[in-house]
Amino acid sequence: MESDRADVTESSFLESATTILDRPRQYVDDAEMGVDHLAHKELLWKLSSTYLPNDVASLQRSLVRHVEYTLARRRYKLDTSSFYQATAHSVRDRLIERWTDTQQYSAKKGAKKVYYLSLEFLIGRSLGNAVSNLGLRGAYAEALRQIGYDLEDIMSEEKEPALGNGGLGRLASCFLDTLATQNYPAWGYGIRYKYGMFEQRIVNGKQVEFPDYWLTDGNPWEVERLDVQYPVRLFGHVREFQDPDGNTLYAWEGGEVVMAQAYDTPIPGYGTYNTNNMRLWSSKPSHEFNLASFNAGNYYGAVEAKERCESITSVLYPNDATEEGKRLRLKQQYFFVSATLQDIYRRFKKNVGRGSTTMKNMPDKVAIQLNDTHPAIAIPELMRLLLDIERLPWDEAWEITRKVFAYTNHTILPEALEKWPVPMITELLPRHMQIIYEINHRFLLEVQKMWPNDTARMSSMSIIEESSPKMVRMSNLAVIGSHTVNGVAMIHTKLLKSLLFPDFLLMWPEKFINVTNGVTPRRWLLQANPALASIYTGMVGPGWVNDLKRLEPIKTMAQDPQFRQRWRAAKQTNKQALAEWLYRSMNIRVDPNALFDMQIKRIHEYKRQLLNVLGIVHRYAEITQATPEQRKTMVPRVHIIAGKAAPGYVMAKNLVMLVCAVSEVVNSDAACRDLLKVVFVPNFNVSLAEILIPASDISQHISTAGMEASGTGNMKFVMNGGLIVGTMDGANIEIEQAIGEHNMFTFGAKADQVAAIRRKMAHDPPKIDPRLHRAMGMIRAGIFGKPDDGAYNQLLDAIDPRKDVYLTAHDFPSYLGAIAEADAAYQYEEKWTAKCIEAACSMWMFSSDRTIREYAAKIWNVEPLPFRPPRHHSER
Ligand SMILES: *Cc1c(COP(=O)(O)O)cnc(C)c1O
């Protein structure tokens, strides 16, 4: 190292200055430079008009340079974590050049942009995704290897930003990956929570939540945009006044003003230069705010108020599929929406007045997708901007607004539908409350015209629920204010139309459409499962990554014994890797030849982890009573359960406790030794999913029919060559159609039977299955301990056959049937492998690439705009 440095001669220095130098970071004033303006510009262009070199030696120089100059670390004392930081910065440089060029290009072209508004983005780690999407995985791996580091080790140093709860947030991130890959001009907008999803630890057999302060070591993937800040008002009052023509106008004034500060994260596409943006907002006190309160002489009060400003974006609400109705959450929603709309508005307004563009053209340039109702306050906010700032007449403003917004519904569960008390909105957002009332008034006139004097319809369609206090139904507001409403799987859209919005459907039949969810093959195959990915690439070339349909022909290979052998070897590699991971991180030994069965998702009663646990307890009973002959016929199984319970969700936390207790008993019972292991893996997140999913043989997606909107975990598992035990719910139904019924183990009541079953059991309780009776008896008897708070009894009481809301007891016998079928099939190794191959290679429908193409065509009306750099790398 020392001699290397001494070796820098003038000529090698010059060489590095011309071929290795990064883009200039500092532009000096013309005057200060004292050079001819044009020559200066030319030099500037020359210095910045080529991309950074990506050969191994250049990457090494960039790494070392970041260690020394960015991190200011000594060159001899480098741990993996410093090298993670350096690698991240080196990759970031390469993202940034593509990113700024993409943004400049799309601005120049004046393309219509998609804005995906989501309170959650479950991004996962960025380093692996970035090197892979940039096509630099091999080069970085080699560059690091030569200097004694392993890219995989370095990648695992990254702390993942957990800015989402589960499926909804992960969907948003899969969509951003696809939007960039398919060259759509698209931005994601969200919140930069200081504390993301809590970290789950198991302490004394119980879930304990720890704060996730993910920014401790900094975040090399974001760019702080001190130049992008907007004021956001809260509270205050509405002033009514007349303009010179006698029109009544409104101004929202007073209250508090908080600043929204932008943080940008480049989102690279795969196999394209296109790099989109995810802009997350962070709250901070405004200057105006500071001065006013400090000058008032109330020092402590002012400091407290300052803290309040910063608290708006401090924490992600850890509820999945339930609403809490907390005031701070409403503040978050409005804060995020206000900053986002100001930003979109400013970008659009650069075009207004240019050529013939007017405000009316906003829908030609702007498509806003609302990821659930969480950002639906954007509808009255855009109205406010158009009415109060632009001073457009109501009808014009309303037409623009409706053409801009589209709304994705994610659930029909009543406990998940957002409602805000009218007094709360009135206090926090007085002008918006007025506008919501006006939207509702005009809408109800339409209802009255269509169904005169139908008060029942009026009250169910109204945005305002006439309860005490009155509530604002955000879903009705979102439907009324959007041009398109979509469900996320066929069955979900059907239920949405028939149960949630039947009257709206009669009014606007063409407004409701289905767009089935999808997941990105970049993260969930290429990155998570290199063993399988390399088989695919070997068979059909690398193009499958952006075109999953190319895997279809591989289905016929299911008949080829040699191919099956290779397939099994890949699965075995992944199972082995997981077994080692479990040993290293949890000190649990599992046999990689056993069947790996996984249920990994948020813990929720409707997802029925309890059904799974009862099945495991049943199996445990069977094992302990089996004769040596019977034992030989049993399939050795490893059951993996993972997922977080919302901190206030007692039933879900009880369930976690029960899983941990069952695991403790089963794993230490000699009778189970080679037949059954149960593992609760704590702190389920994206990185963990990437380790677990490729190693699964079976995964369980067993929600009560009609309750899981789509599910996306199901898609990831099948793509990775695992099979599903599942109910006819969500996307399971479409997956079964795509892969064939013989490749899925289905069971349970169908969605259209659930209501009748519930009605019947209320007055005619069914007899309890003896196997279920035994399993419940074991739990009640205290075989898995007896928690003081009666936690297990509480779980079991809820499935009493008379009030078995989730049909757990009802579906238990057919569930055991499906599990038994899976076991039986697993024993025929060759047939099993053929099923996995057929299923995995039939999954193109469930790539988010297909999903996004549908959104683009049916909802957004946008076209891809591929950015190609003016010169290729190699020309430098
Ligand atoms: C895919 C995913 C989910 C969603 O899983 P479902 O089975 O669809 O509920 C939740 N969390 C993480 C981390 C995921 O990757």
UniProtKB/TrEMBL annotation:
This chain belongs to the protein called Alpha-1,4 glucan phosphorylase
Sites where N6-(pyridoxal phosphate)lysine occurs are at: 716
Which domain of life does the protein's organism represent? Eukaryota
Q: Quote the EC number.
A: 2.4.1.1
Co-factor(s): pyridoxal 5'-phosphate
**What does the record give as the reaction this protein catalyses?**
[(1->4)-alpha-D-glucosyl](n) + phosphate = [(1->4)-alpha-D-glucosyl](n-1) + alpha-D-glucose 1-phosphate
In UniProt terms, what function does this protein have? Allosteric enzyme that catalyzes the rate-limiting step in glycogen catabolism, the phosphorolytic cleavage of glycogen to produce glucose-1-phosphate, and plays a central role in maintaining cellular and organismal glucose homeostasis.
GO molecular function terms attached to this record: glycogen phosphorylase activity; pyridoxal phosphate binding
Q: Which GO BP terms apply?
A: glycogen catabolic process
Q: Which family does it belong to?
A: Belongs to the glycogen phosphorylase family.
Listed A to Z, the keywords are: Allosteric enzyme, Carbohydrate metabolism, Glycosyltransferase, Pyridoxal phosphate, Transferase
InterPro entries, alphabetically? Glycg_phsphrylas, Glyco_trans_35, Pyridoxal_P_attach_site
* One GO cellular component term: cytoplasm
Which residue ranges does UniProt annotate as crossing the membrane? none
